[in-house]
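Instructor's aside before we start: the two examples that follow are unrelated to each other. I chose them only because their records fit on one page, so don't look for a connection. First example below.
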Amino acid sequence: MSVTMVPSLIYRRFAYPLLALALLSLAIVFAPGVSYGKIHRWIHAGPINFQPSELAKGAAVLYLAASLAKKREQITDFFSGVLPHVLTIGTIILLIAFEPDLGGAVSISLVLFAMLFVTGARLRHLGLLAACGLVLFICATLTAQYRFNRITSFLAKSEHKQGHSYQLNQSLIAFGAGGANGVGLGESRQKMLYLPEAHTDFIFAVVGEETGLWGGGTIILLFALLGVRGLRVAMRHPQP
């Protein structure tokens, strides 16, 4: 059944319980014995591996939708309309950033910014949030060498072909090998240990190699269609 057929009242009822569950699960990953090493992103329960940050993304959207709809008349006031949402979602963002997962933290930050903008928050308040977020992002990047290396290798990928830019360059080789029509399903050569993390972070490079420009372009168009359909549902819905 399509999620568009579920009454919005059901989502609203689950918004706050899901938020509480997300915060609890994000805190649990830091408990001794739950995660291993310095990475605290997964909860291991027997054969089940659960990543709380994924739950937190959906919970943040539902919470913001329910709360902003309730407080939309106060959204122009920073302390009563904006700050409570920033503090609540900011807690989630900080917990995810400390896992560490800067990408997940940034994605939820963008969701917070976008939903405040759509609700009608003042531009000067949004500008202040954006400035604070940019400063925190720069600090997080400069204080972790591997994050700084990712940025420098992206900007100068030709200078680190066998170093920090190895994976990025291998993905570009995959896209180039695919050309317009691709090499055929299952025929990717880059996934044969040339492209690290080919089954997760760089799976689109493998898709581009096997299906070519047409296959990769079709996937992008499908994502665009999903976005358009989502906006259409949102604009036609009777409840804010």
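Example two begins here.
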Amino acid sequence: MKGIICRLLIVVCCVLGILGAAQLSCQAASSHEIEAFHYKTFKDGDRKWLRIELGLNNDDLEYEVKENPDKPYQLLILMKNTKRGDVNKNIGLDRKIARYMTLTPSGKKDLQIMIAVDSSLAEHEYKVYTQKADKKAKKPYRLIIEIAADGAKSSVKVDNPDVPEDELLPEVSGHTVVVDAGHGGSDSGAIGPSMLKEKNVTLNIALEVSRILQENGARVVMSRYKDVDVFGPYATDKQELQARVDVGRRDPSVEIFVSIHCNAFTNSEANGTGTYFYPHSSRDAMLAQHIQSEMVRATGLKDRGINSARFYVLRNSRMPATLVETAFISNPNEERMLANVHCQHTMALAICRGINNYFRNIIH
């Protein structure tokens, strides 16, 4: 009897050992997911650098760095066993050292990062490395990418060295702006023929508007920074719209409210860009007109003009407010524009220039 019990114990221990080993194996093979993204520029001596930080949920990341032989301005980083997570697929960067970054799946398990720099990589110095989590600073385990400006770019002098010349907007400095990315979370907004969702386009443009304004000294209050409902999941239309209005009402320093959307219509040939306002005062129409003029100039789209409308966020805002219908997501040609990171930047910069012109005119 004792012999039988001993043999059973041995079998149980072996089974537990196998399960334990399997569990360890699974832990070792756990996938990485990007949970956070941040970038900034800094100076090291006389040279300016761009630093990109990708926060991950696990450490011990395996990655490969290479240059694209067919496109010498592209830096490629293959992150093994990694998912994109809650980070945009296309991300605009500082546009002085690097223009944009894309994150796309590579095979079934890996993720490829492509960073488009402003000139050939031969003109740049770059570093790619990982950093351990810093609990005191509340920073996760990170993949760090640092790229230096090339010699020609670092020698260019502008009034504000941290802002590209074409993005210098001196009149916005010191002002406070609400930037509202239309839709989000459970509300996708309009969906284009290629399944492009309005909520993603508006967020990308809004984040770019926020970046440009802040780099020029403005203070920006965003209704949302990521793909979420502002009020909460599955709120009523009124609750969600009022939550966006409240973003501006809660802050007495806010001066204008700018809501960003994409237009849509049953006829796929409908096209163009238009801007809306509610006539609380002459300043509402003035803000709409300045943004509309810059949008048409920058994009070349059909000018649908400015129009008075009773949109909830405009009618209930207590400061000059406007709603920009950037282009028709239901139009296949304009949908392609809206999906393009360069076009998103162009639209964002046009909105910012309109805001800059508005503040110039109400001050002088």
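The longest strand covers residues 32-44.
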